[in-house]
Specification:
Shape of chain B: elongated
Helix content of chain A: 25-40%
Radius of gyration of chain A: 20 Å
Number of strands of chain A: 18
Number of helices of chain B: 16
CATH topology of chain A: pyruvate-formate lyase- activating enzyme
Number of strands of chain B: 6
Number of domains of chain A: 1
Largest interface: A-B, 18 and 19 residues
Bound molecules: iron/sulfur cluster
Strand order of the largest sheet of chain A: 4-5-9-10-11-13-14-18
Oligomer: heterodimer
Radius of gyration of chain B: 30 Å
Distance between the termini of chain A: 44 Å
Order of helices and strands of chain B: EHEEHEHHHHHHHHHHHHEEHH
Structural class of chain B: alpha+beta
Chain lengths: 366, 323
């Protein structure tokens, strides 16, 4: 029996909707968690609310839309990527994670009706022939955090291998490369890791996230196998010593990767609604960065005061540019004013962020 | 003749009796809302006598006052006998509930509710469901959540709540402070009555500065001593304290606002134009506005605007771009 990664060893119950009890995912989970008896929920039954603080894996028949637009806002530039919704919640514990404001329990939901997902994606991709798609799964969960149990990304990669117009990004904070040998064309899969200053990775990304070194070594393995990788500095955190921290991370990036092996690098400053701040102060009382100078942005979210954001972005962008990463840089949910101040260009100069990132994803720009 | 309706808390038969005010035990802790008698009640009792009996439990050696403290106090002063309704032997919980019911027409403030809750919660095995019902509190309401937070504060804060100096909305903020911080914070409320919004803001900022810098509230309030002692009006004192605490919490923003206000004043001096930054510097926008009531005023404002636009220090209005 293979040993499960530490972040999955805390799962104490497996619950399955009767409709997906016979699914591939359910069979895999049975095989990989043989010591846990699967509890079946009949049609109409729901998992009781107010669940204890234990990790419960819930294999669910999902009835909503699997393909969604990223929830951008009108005042800031959104990157226009689409979400393939494969499940919700995450067993890791990043202090800044928005999911703690969305989900009060620790139920790890996996949409096990993959046939429905495939059907919907197939219809969507056929509906507009010639259109290209940049999609990712890491919005309501980490793309690979449950991979050792479910093999979900591997299945998705095999399926999307039939759609060369689709580029899939797998965004993660763990290292799981078990999906690699299922890839037909490495140019259509973008493995992506979250980057942060070492102090933030060590202090704020709790719950067995991979270290920065492990993430970058995995990125190098992917790059050596012909993949281009994505790096996400989101959320950047303003803390004493942030300059040294982010400079060190950039150094580590270029110790592991060549600029041309990087498809794109995003930069986003920590932003939050009041609910998230309350969750952080309760769940992570040692996290002081929430007491930075945050003001209400044009979208109603709290954002770091603009000159502080610009200073941090500029510092990071300059360091990355010195290493040879430039066109790949973009800002997540920022205004043209911030783009101009940080990168000296706006999304319009790049032909629009959506088009630019699409081209980057499909390897058409250097 | 002297029989009354059976109350739900006590004996089937309540009886009316008279006794000397000095005979009545008026020290019961269930009289949690007792306040000095009003002149109106005093006048009425003097002129018309006692028209409504007070409630007592006359089962023991002395009648024990259950409700009607103000009337009992005035009648004692006037040296008159007191008309009492004996509602029988009651538990402390039932006395409290009878007291609440006898005040049923009173609008209950947050202070009243806190005092009542403190009493009932101190009684072992008290049926809180009945208490909440009697007090008109919904078990899932925000008000009750805040009251529960308030009850974790030292009792001496109850006085500040009852006097209106601190709003109940501050309860969950206050309970996050350590006891020594709370003692220091009392000085902010001892002589000032804060609005809900200002009190919540000031306490939030103080708490966040403490958490951010790892300091005690005393260190944050150190610089405010002068403001408190400056002899300003209460309104000005609170406004100054709010500004100063905000500056500690948001030093860069406060600095930018101050610089902008200074520049805006300079640029628009001698004109009727108002120059403001609308969105906490999230954009480069500056708003320039004027209010006119005639064509002549509009023409004059136009000329002023032209003069303003010719100034060389206009770049100072766009501090982020400049940086
Ligand atoms: S890895 Fe991502 S989804 Fe998981 S806790 Fe961290 S931020 Fe949240």
């Amino acid at each position: 029996m293979t040993v499960l990664p530490t972040h999955l060893q805390g799962i104490s119950r497996v619950v399955v909707d009767a409709a997906v009890a016979g699914s591939t995912i359910a069979a895999r989970v049975r095989e990989r968690l043989p010591h846990l008896k699967q509890e079946t929920l009949q049609e109409g039954e729901t998992l009781a609310a107010g669940l204890a603080r234990e990790d419960i894996l819930y294999l669910k028949r999902y009835r909503g839309r699997f393909l969604r637009h990223c929830p951008g806002t009108s005042h800031y530039r959104c990157c226009g990527y689409q979400i393939v919704h494969i499940g919700e919640n995450c067993p890791l514990r990043c202090s800044y994670c928005i999911l703690q404001a969305y989900f009060q329990d620790r139920v790890l939901k996996v949409w096990a009706n993959q046939d429905d997902l495939r059907l919907e994606l197939d219809q969507a991709f056929h509906a507009s022939p010639g259109r290209r798609y940049r999609v990712g799964t890491g919005e309501f969960t980490d793309s690979l955090v449950l991979e050792a149990l479910t093999g979900y990304s591997r299945d998705l990669i095999e399926f999307l291998g039939n759609y060369p117009q689709v580029c899939l990004e797998l965004k993660s904070k763990v290292v799981d490369l078990s999906w690699m040998d299922a890839v037909r064309d490495p140019s259509r899969v973008l493995p992506a890791w979250s980057m942060n200053a070492p102090d933030i990775v060590d202090g704020e990304e709790q719950g067995d996230c991979a270290s920065l070194e492990e993430r970058l070594s995995a990125a190098r393995t992917c790059a050596q196998a012909g993949f281009r990788v994505c790096l996400h500095f989101d959320p950047m955190i303003h803390f004493p010593g942030w300059r040294e921290g982010y400079a060190r991370t950039v150094e580590m990036i270029f110790d592991h990767l060549q600029p041309e092996q990087i498809a794109y690098v995003s930069m986003g400053s920590f932003r939050h609604m009041p609910d998230l701040k309350r969750c952080i102060s309760e769940n992570f009382p040692g996290s002081k960065y929430i007491y930075g100078e945050f003001v209400t942005g044009l979208d109603g979210k709290q954002r770091l005061l603009r000159p502080l954001r610009v200073e941090q972005f500029r510092f990071l962008a300059d360091a990355l540019r010195r290493g040879g990463v430039d066109r790949q840089l973009y800002l997540c949910m920022e205004s043209d004013e911030v783009w101009q101040a940080v990168l000296g260009r706006t999304p319009a100069d790049l032909g629009g962020l959506y088009r630019h990132l699409m081209a980057q994803a499909f390897g058409e720009e250097g | 003749m002297n029989k009354v309706d059976a109350p739900r808390w006590g004996h089937a038969c309540a009886t009316i009796l008279r006794c000397a005010a000095s005979d009545i035990d008026v020290k019961g802790p269930w009289l949690f809302w007792s306040a000095p008698p009003s002149p109106a009640l005093r006048g009425s009792l003097e002129r018309h006598g006692q028209l409504v009996p007070i409630l007592v439990d006359a089962g023991g050696a002395r009648p024990v006052l259950v409700a009607g403290a103000a009337r009992a106090a005035i009648l004692a002063e006037l040296g008159r006998e007191v008309l009492c309704l004996d509602i029988g032997a009651l538990s402390d919980e039932a006395r409290g509930l009878a007291y609440v019911q006898s005040n049923a027409d009173r609008e209950l403030t947050d202070g009243h509710l806190v005092l009542a809750m403190r009493y009932f919660l101190s009684l072992p095995g008290c049926d809180m469901e009945s208490v909440l019902e009697a007090l008109g509190l919904d078990a899932r309401s925000k008000r009750l959540r805040l009251i529960r937070s308030w009850l974790r504060l030292p009792r001496r804060w109850d006085g500040l709540l009852c006097s209106g100096a601190v709003p109940l909305a501050c309860a969950d903020l206050l309970e996050t402070f350590a006891p020594e911080d709370l003692s220091v914070l009392e000085s902010l409320f001892a002589t000032l009555s804060w609005s809900r919004g200002n009190a919540v803001n000031v306490l939030t900022w103080i708490r966040e500065v403490c958490a951010r810098d790892g300091v005690k509230a005393a260190a944050v309030l150190e610089g405010l001593g002068e403001t408190l002692a400056a002899g300003l009006s209460p309104k000005d004192t609170m406004s100054r304290i709010t500004q100063e605490v905000r500056r500690l919490r948001y030093p860069m923003l406060a600095g930018m606002e101050r610089d902008f206000a200074e520049t805006a004043r300079k640029v628009s001096a001698g004109t009727r134009w108002r120059v403001t930054q609308p969105d906490l510097f999230e954009s480069d926008a500056v708003e320039v506005s004027v209010r006119v009531t005639s064509a002549g005023e509009l023409r004059a404002a136009g000329a002023e605007l032209v003069r303003m636009a010719a100034r060389e220090d206009l770049d100072d209005l766009f501090p982020v771009v400049r940086k």
